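Friendly challenge for the regulars: who can give me the structure tokens for this chain first? No prize, just bragging rights.
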Amino acid sequence: MTSSSAGRIEIEFPTIKGVFAGRSVSADRIEGQWRQNGATFSLAFDRGEAALAPPPPPRPLTRERLVELRTTAGSPAMAAASARKGLAAHVWVDGERAIETGVAVRENDIWHLGSITKSMTSMLVARLVDAGEVRWDETIGDILGAVAPDMRDAYRTVTFRHLLCHRSGLPGNLPLADSLRFSREIADAREERKAHVRKSLAMAPLGPMTSTYSYSNNGYIVAGTMLEVKLGRSWEELIGTRLFQSLGLSTAGFGAPGHAGATDQPVGHAWSGGRQSRLAYPVGGAVSDNPAVLGPAGRVHMSLQDVLRYLAAHRDRTDYLKPESWKMLHTPPFGGDYAMGWIVRGDGTLWHNGSNTLWYAEVLVDAAQGIVAAAAANDGYLAKSQPAVGHALLEAAAAAS
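First reply, four minutes later:
Bragging rights claimed.
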């Protein structure tokens, strides 16, 4: 469906649930935003010579440039970091931990990573495969048959490989009313995850496994639950001991960082819709993160220094995993560009982003250039924070080169 008026245009793509809304800024350029699955991206169309010209290379990030990006976006705080193999890391920060507190962010502060967690869950599965504790081809029916006896038959033969590259056919999320019934914080989320799995496996598939790509938080929750049932330990314990401790990620944890009643870490924000541009959602409030059951799909936090250590393991393909497991993680198993928790770009770099609607982050692994980079904002207003963080990421990588 297309509509236009007075230089503005809106195009709806019902099949993929996407909408482009923009305006003509010249005879040869349209600028606007693409909205899909709750995310918003800036998007521009050029024609003529401008469309054929290659984009200028990103400038190397500086502190002054980060200040410019943050203030233009209106985000409370932003941070970026990068490193080239064998050289020291660069870290840039600007802004305040929570709006109107005057408490400045620091270089070693902790940032929520959202769906960047997915590559970590995939890496955990690979580690357990290498140890002989699970197999890539184990199915939902094999492991969760007793947990969800009424699951739809279409899901019974779905494997870890399908789940981790979004080829299971599972819808992305439960209906919001069902999601809100799960605990925001809970000491042990295993039983609630089983309940979540039963609900998601009762949903009608979006299409047949393997041939259907559909980005799915549900799929990662199912994969995490499969690990919990098979090994008798929570996903949090497994990833904490098998990945975070093994890689020396001492700041890694779950949920929003910091402590209730203190501004000891950055605080997530969202668009207020009122007089103030952003509203803070501190730890201890009614909402500071997604429900705990979503852990395997997107609840990890850590400092950007630890993020770079994590990314460097992927860049260098260390002996943490066997060579064939690294290849598995970084190769889309059924075509397309989505591997195991990573989008593989045309130039071979690995990229992913993440948001819990109160934060936004992006990461990049450029093995060919030996560069890793990360950028984040404590701002879930994606129309503003996403472009700023995206620029900061590319410019941080340019600074490392």
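The longest helix spans residues 382-400. Residues 260 and 284 are 5 Å apart (CA to CA). Your move, everyone else.
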